Queue: 4 jobs
Job 1
Amino acid sequence: MSVPIVRTVAELRANVADWRREGSRIAVIPTMGALHEGHLSLVRAALEKADRVIVTLFVNPKQFNNAGDLAAYPRTEEADAGKLAPLGAHLLYAPDVHEMYPNGFATTVTVSGVSDGLCGAFRRGHFDGVATVVAKLLLQTGADLAFFGEKDFQQLHIVRRMAKDLDIPIDIVPCPTVRELDGLALSSRNVRLSPREREVAPKLASALFNAAERIAGGVPVDEVLAGAWSAIIEAGYSRVEYLEMRADEDLAPMHELDRPARLLVAAWLGETRLIDNVKVLSRTSIDNAPGERTKLSVTDATI
Ligand code: PAF
């Protein structure tokens, strides 16, 4: 058995209207397909909070920086649909490019501030493409809840900001990054790694977790980040695009651990660009009385 697939906004809305008549709570999980355990964890989380779960599959040309990357993106719709049915997802919405961007389409959603820096500095126009398609998907589905992985942490912030600014009545629900046993964050790009690169790949996560632990232990942030940058290169990555500490709440740059923070990284392993992030959080409340030493620990430190 496979999950029902619809390809037009009209069919999608007909399903949603039926579910609304039943009084159902509806969730959406936007994806570009090539579903892995990370996506499936979002589906499971959505099924716990909603009566009906829509997964969208659209490889969005507007968020790719080059035609080669778009052409190389894995397209595995049949396998994806096969993975969704046993979980109990209710609908796969897989529009084609003309349905999403009909002739004459002329609108771009730009979210400033949280789009600046990090991936935004290296992938020009990428987040405009993401914000535009996600705005459309949220409005097309009219869902009550939308689930996004923390793996794409900057994207999560952009989507939250966009939904708030455009008054889209939806709750954006973040879900933790899913990792392989050796720590590598799951990504559709991991299939592009050669066996040798796959061995090296988890060293990005270990460098991040190690850095987060050292920062939590009181080592100066800039010193820790410089060491982690070198460790990533020594491990076999060819280039680090960025490695930064940002505020968990609003992505503001941080140089001291005075509030909950994230370490975020993007690095190239051969021809593959990988991103990852880990949380650095105070163990006790960061509203400790002045003068009291804040105890810090690394969460997400599962490896
Ligand atoms: O994270 C992704 O897979 C994409 O950026 C998204 C959110 C589905 C928009 O195309």
Note: Residues 283-303 have pLDDT under 50 and may be disordered.
Job 2
Amino acid sequence: MHVVETVAEARAAVRQAVRPLGLVPTMGYLHEGHLSLVRRAREESATLAATIFVNPTQFGPTEDYATYPRNLERDLGLLREAGVDLVFAPTVEEMYPPGYDTYVTIGSVAERLEGAARPGHFRGVATVVAKLFNLLQPDRAYFGQKDAQQVVVIRKLVADLNLTVEVVALPIVREPDGLALSSRNVYLSPPERQAALVLWHSLQTVEARFRAGERDAEQLRGAMRAVLAAEPLAEVDYVSVADAATLDELSRVDRPTLVSLAVRIGRTRLIDNFVLGVEG
Ligand code: PAF
């Protein structure tokens, strides 16, 4: 496995890469969710690249950039074991040298939900992903459905800027009890870890109500809020029942629908989601 830190080295490695080239962009502190992307990408790529970069531009001034968990040596071991060919792990100065002043802003799909709660977040995500795509020229790039809005935003970036990369989104990986894997789960104390299950329980409640025939989106949002309200450690940021492609809030569930939520458990902000497919 070739590990590079500079743009020049990454470009040189990519020039020699056998195609198709698959890319798994990450912020490191890898878990089974990332590794599921790596495994799938390995199957579909002649050359497999991953990036490890905690991207400062996607964190707000009061967010956890400084404390975001990092463990480069462990990450490199996991990527080596999974058969990754090339790892690009740049410094902040390499990605954003002095005088750096160009950003990618995506429109309405980036402004709601996480975009409304975390101003500037998707500007940072779209900028770094555009830079990584440009630099590494992947044929396919793999993202987790855990960050469902991020997938929508990146698909929009690719469509609107006529990029040629194919965006592949893979299912959320969960703990046996349903908690969605996230690098931020390490912040949870044991009681908070238990309380965090309320996100999954609220999604399961929506699914059960949907299966029982409920199509009124506000009823489904209300059902989620009721489950969340019963957990004293949970402070709800938003619950959403939205068109899966446009992220417009729905009044009726009559098309593929993204059910998503953001909840603070103590000082940790967690997100989760699932897609309700609508037959016919
Ligand atoms: O999902 C992530 O880990 C990050 O948002 C990404 C896509 C690597 C961009 O920094």
Note: The beta strands are 2-4, 21-26, 47-52, 86-88, 140-144, 166-170, 234-243, 257-265, 268-276.
Job 3
Amino acid sequence: MSKPKLIVISTGGTITMTSGQGSKGIAPTLTAADLLNAVPQIGQQADIEALTFSSMPGASLATSQIAELAHLIQQRFDGGIDGAIVIQGTDTIEETAFLLDMLVADRKPVIVTGAMRGAQAAGADGPANLLASVIVAGSPQAAGRGTLVVLNDEVHAAAFVKKGHTGLTSSFISPNAGRLGLVSEQRALFTSSSGMPRLALSRPGAWPDIAIVKACLGDDGRMLDALPGLGYAGVVVEAMGAGHVPQCWAPRLSGLAAKMPVVLAVRTPGGPVFTNTYGFPGSEIDLAGRGLIPAGLLDALKARLLLGALMGNNETVEAIRHQFMRFSNLQA
Ligand code: ASP
């Protein structure tokens, strides 16, 4: 059987970082080719094209760059590449992977990976993560599952993966779905057959600014009133519990929802936003009545990206509501 043709695109991140560049800590220095040369086993798995897209920490990547990357990947797929691996900083993988998932409408696999330890660290995890990603990208079972995140020999769906720890190599978790599979003995083993909604959105012409506002004990929510004047076009509220805010936020949110789309997500690490249980002022039922759009199982970071992409495509509030509902009912 011929080997799959894959592209490995590096944007930077800890996996590319070394020390000794004059700065105090580690910083991005290695190219995609450098990373691939450090793992000779990859050549047995696939024919690889290496591309260094940027050399940045994950925190400094922009949505427009990820949209450009999605376009580049689609072009390579159209040109005959079988799968793509994006290397990047783990700080924002949960966001970039979801954005790629929305913008690359293809059955061919896109894998996002990185490393928790720098390239010179004892027990650096970058080489193993890169090899595992190549194995998953070359697996026929990865097709049609959207963008996947592969680290620590675990495979996660872009819509649900989160960075769950600042330092452990087992940092990545999917509290709302569990992992989709594993890499074992040089094979990808998918243990879950569940499919995520594929959004297949067009690349937005512009990215509207969407704010995330987190509800906290005793906060009066005055920040909400300032958002329209600051130029924000939409808001995601990261509410308490199952979708609750202090009652003094409720009238402020009514006013905001009359001006722009307001999505209701939860700050609780797992579970969907409720829609039909609590009826007090500031509860999920009250806020739905005030026009807020429940985010379903999407967390605030992912809800912000989905809202931005939909608004950037000039979708109506009803169309936006419909897309978010797909994350409440995964069969839809
Ligand atoms: N700060 C790093 C980054 O996101 C963390 C990492 O890559 O693991 O670039």
Note: The radius of gyration is 20 Å.
Job 4
Amino acid sequence: MSAAKRVGILISGRGSNMVSLLEAMRAGEVPGEAALVVSDRPDAPGLAKAASFGVATAVVPRREYRGRPREEHDRAVHERLEAAGVEIVCLAGYMRILSPWFVERWQGRMINIHPALLPSFPGLHGQRQALEHGARIAGCTVHFVDAEVDHGPIIAQAAVPVLPGDTEETLAARILEQEHRIYPLALRLLCQGRLTIEGRRVLVRDEQIDLPRSLVVPDPSS
Ligand code: GAR
């Protein structure tokens, strides 16, 4: 078997997706090892969680780069990742738009999770956007990162129903549960070298298909 990939995780906040990745790597379900967690916010609660896994952490405070080109901050982050020998970058609630320079450096090796079924509802508050739009099916997406926000080739998606009476919080919680399933799945496939990008499509080598045919909302038995 090939060596575990060195994975860097970028966060800005609570880091629940980061934890799902760390747990999956620790359990040996993903052939990767967490090399470094970087936050752009010194107060991100995810930093302490990363430390509790024994993972090295770094903070590159965005505040210190205020008024300077975005790329300068990204270069500082990149240096930390390089120094830690990172091969794959996972954005896990990293709420910062990346410079084209950074995106290019990590092209094909950087993935992101977004709480909506892309290409619907990119940007902030994907769950709120789905609710306000009246969508009956919502979900989450893991995708390769390209120069546009929440836009690159899609690796994995999970769909959930939007239920009557849902609030942004209840819908977000339902989606988050699925985020924690598909992010480790996507990272596993990437670490296993099973993903190929062809244009906008991602091909998965040896993909097993044993899936329900559809999710229909409202429930047809209503
Ligand atoms: C997650 O829901 C993630 O999908 C979202 O931020 C949250 C971070 O939570 N990301 C985006 O909206 C990216 N556009 P976490 O810190 O607990 O993983």
Note: Residues 153 and 199 are 8 Å apart (CA to CA).
